[in-house]
Amino acid sequence: MQGQEDELFESLRKNLLAMYHGTDSNERRKADRWLQKLQRDTTGWSVADAILGGRTPLVGAQERLGSHAACEALIFAAMTLHVKVCGDIHELSDVQKNGLRDAALEHLARWGCGPAAGSTPPAVVKKIALAVAALAVQTSWDGALMHISQQLEAAESRQAEGLSQQKNIISFSEEAALVEATCRSKRIAIELLAALPEQCEARRLCVSRARREGYQSFLKQNANNAVNAITMVVAQTHNALAILSQHHEKQIKLGTPGEQNGENTFLTQNRGHKNLFDWVKDATQRLNLSALICLQSWISFSEVEAQVLAVNPLFLGTFDAVNHPFLFEVATDVIIEALRAYDCLNALHQPVVAVIAPRVMALRPRFEQANNAGDEDDCFALCRLFCEMGEAYMPLIASTQDANQLTIIELELLCANHPARRVATLPLRFFYNLSRAWSQMPEDEGKMRLREAMIDPFLRLARCCLLQSERTEEDGSAEDFARDEHSLGDDFSRHRADLADCLGDCAFFLGYESVLKIIGERIRQILSIGIDGTPTPRRSTSPIIGGTSVINNNRSNPADALEACFFALRAVSEWVPDTESVILPETIRLLPSLESSWRSAIRAGTACVSAYTFWLRNYARELLEPVVTFLVSVLEANAAAIQRQKQKQIGPNNGRGGRIDAQGHRRLPTGPSPAARALKAVCSTCRRELARLGALDLRDRLVAAGLSHRDELELLEGLGHVISACDQFDDICRGFERLITPPAMALSTLVSRIDAPADTKLVAEELERLTSIVRCTTPSRQHFGLSPSSHDTNSATTTNVATPLTPTINTVLNNAEIANRRHPVLSFIEKLWPVFEAVAERYGDSPQLIERLCRCYKHAMRSCRTQFEPMLEQMIDHLVRHFSKTPLSSYVYASSICITEFGRDSNKHGILFEMLTKLSATVFCLFRSLDDFRQRPDVAEEYFYLTSRFLDYCPDHLVHSPLLESVLRCGIVGLALEHREAQRGILHCFERTVVVAYEAALNASQNGDPSTPDARRAAALATLLVEQQLGRLIADGVLKALTGDLPAYALDEGHGSLVGVLWRLRLFCPNDLPRWCANSLQNVPERYASNDIKSDLMVSIAEDPAVKDSFCDALLLFSARCRDLAKVLR
């Protein structure tokens, strides 16, 4: 037996060494698994107790820990004890639990107050205290607070007794040692006191709801006493330190030999302290720190009465502790917790509110001092405190009563002006909430007076945001920034996103005119400087150029400063109406005259055009052509740059900047440029105006200039919108033919090669061109004699375009001729169908290329909608046939589009169900085991989404067919697949099945006729889910995922989640689900979910009437506990 223990501890030593000091990642992972398994094994109790008791070779009974190995073993033992108490307490009897508590308290005293306490890692004491607290909750130990009180009293008594007995003979060193030992003893008791409310709320603690709530009630009843006890400890320690300080000064005056020079045992053992007094002072500061942490814990998790806390000396002293470097961080956390815990509108909480507000406001000089000293960390913590106060007291700030609102707002504005971005970002949320809270105030004079008072701060905030959005030299290279606004890193991009939101908040509160005026004034200042710092010759009498400068600090070069102005214009675009006629016209006119070297400004200017295309439509007559000319010139310049960079083997500077590859060359960007996106947006919004300007010529011009492929796709989509807006149907057909012919011919040529298949990249590019054109060629349904639909983007009734469709369409042609028109996209698909067949045959082994082919199908069907009917059967046959040959998920997805477009037509339900049946036959042949799912998770995902879509659009054929049972059984097997999206697809299918059943049953119960389609549908699904036990199997699989036996990627995330499936089953099978869950939970080992935890869950599941929030919360809590305790491999 002894040999086995020695072998175990030797293995533990080796694994700890590998874990903490190993360099091989595989060895460290292996050691981690071994250690976790030991923690969850029943031997973990004895191992932890032996190590903490000093009865092992790893940690002996020595007075001081002499090695890293001993410290690491202690940390592991303390962690193991905590883990076991939280999750494996069911392994112990009541007698063993009491014995464990006594042993844990001995360990806490040994390593917190014993001879080795000075070298014990703080984490050891912390974890043991958490373990004792968790055990107190598990066993409802009402004597915990009494025990802590007794420990505090005993420590104080020992100190008083020691000083009184040796009042005349005790040396200063002995007195100091006595005070220091008392501080250590009290700090251990305070650690335990802080752990009690924390562990009572701990999610991973495996305890029943009734026991947890009972202990919570016990702690709340004693919260006031606990806070007073903490305060008394601090006061006693302060008094002891004051007395010791007097003795220390007396010793210095007397010049006691040895002690003054530090030649004594205590100083020899504590060489890190320059003298005994500093040694004791550090001990008292650590006690004060623990006391503040304990106070924070009780404020957070218990209900300390406001009138008690408001006069508590420790809480009041917290505001002074902010000025103490050692206590600063914890002190701010205590104040923040108090801000969150006490509602400013609750009359009972007013005493605390009255204490906090003025004291926090008084910390402004402390913030300014830290700012002047360049202490960013202190500024961040204080700013966080100010923002928390602003959020907590928002109901008072956004009110008509005088609550010193402007002082708080000025304080937040001071933080927003801080040069460090992480500090300046914090208060932006406050201004968002302030603007919204003000907008919800009653419309009266008080609201308007408050607005008048807040106008100036919001104006300054807008100027601040505009200035901070400029690139500085510290941010990075101007060249990189000119290529891409995201090239300077995530911090810069995130900060700019926050600034954009804040500018929108300013526009919301002030009105867009005020923010545009600030931007205009900034543009005037920039244009008066010039790129080389000299005044520019540009002058204007427009409102942009008129006026005086409001910002004098030019932090960046003019190009980047102007870029920031365009960025700000984009930020407020949603607040600017289409009729704005002061700032925007002159700004847009400015774009073509920008210096070609101002690349960042040009890039941002094109993006600004994208944001204001709806505004541009109202000024199309005077500005549309110059804007298009500007965008085309930018694209041509980008194309020329691409050619130059290719020759140098360096990526282009259009769009998103290229990344450096292994050879040091800049790779080509993959996304479209801002200019291409802007041109597409202009084409989409101003399609009718551009159709009259002959915009199709742009394609030939830009392609000849060497436009990048991604930019060309954007251009083709934009031109597709343009041709769709032509008044005459013949013009639409001719324009479409002109656009589609080049890529169609190129694709046909590539596919017709007999000698060798063409490069898949070339084929894919031509398919992408075809898709871009097909996707956006959506003529109005009125051209086909149909009424406009919600999908019609070219109807005058849906676009609010001033010029309607030509009213002579139905007068020139008779209705029959109009009705017989064929959609140009349909004609194209029919004509190129042999080519598509050839692509599927020759490139079936390329999933990427087939994905592009099916994407072309998808957009063709969506463009044509019901007019695709002549090709529907051919398309279905094509997809089914090729899926059986090469089972790729793209074919399944394209099949789901067929259901979307034709599922509402009852005449097509038969052919769609036949399609589903054939696809299912192939799928069932593919997925005969879980390994088969692992080979094709994407196919599983798309197949179950396809089935869900069928249930949404035309469920009856599937509901009354044996196929649905096979689908559900297949999905139950697939739940074990470790693939996030595949599991979501399976769960979505389960959920939609039960939703269809529940809705049908609900409708049938209201109708009362058992022969209705809803009644028959509900009966069929009840047979499947209840009588044939499919519902039980689904519930069992979901519960296994919730407990950790199966993967659980989608707990409660909208459609297709584990909790969502159970909730739907609860609605449809209210009497059966509790029974199914009870049977499933019997198979869950108690080490992962105790009987108390299972009972709590069953109460929530069986609750009648069912309440969704409590039902879902109970399942999520159950899952969190189980999965936290089941992290190691089962």
TrEMBL record:
| Alphabetical list of InterPro entries matching this protein | ARM-like (IPR011989), ARM-type_fold (IPR016024), Importin_beta-like_NTR (IPR051345), TPR_TNPO3_IPO13_2nd (IPR057941), TPR_TNPO3_IPO13_4th (IPR058537)
- Which cell locations does it reside in? Nucleus
Q: Quick check: keyword Zinc-finger in the entry?
A: no
The protein's matches in Pfam families, at most eight in alphabetical order, are given as: TPR_TNPO3_IPO13_2nd, TPR_TNPO3_IPO13_4th
Q: Which Gene3D superfamilies match?
A: Leucine-rich Repeat Variant
Q: Which domain of life is it from?
A: Eukaryota
Q: Name one GO cellular component term.
A: nucleus
Renumbered to this chain, region (Disordered) spans: 646-673
Q: Give the UniProt keywords, A-Z.
A: Nucleus, Transport
Instruction: Enumerate the SUPFAM superfamilies for this protein.
Output: ARM repeat (SSF48371)
Asked if Transport is a keyword of the record, the answer is yes
- Where is this protein primarily located? nucleus
- Provide a GO biological process annotation: protein import into nucleus
What is the similarity comment for this entry?
Belongs to the importin beta family.
Task: Please identify the protein, giving its name as recorded.
Answer: Exportin-1/Importin-beta-like domain-containing protein
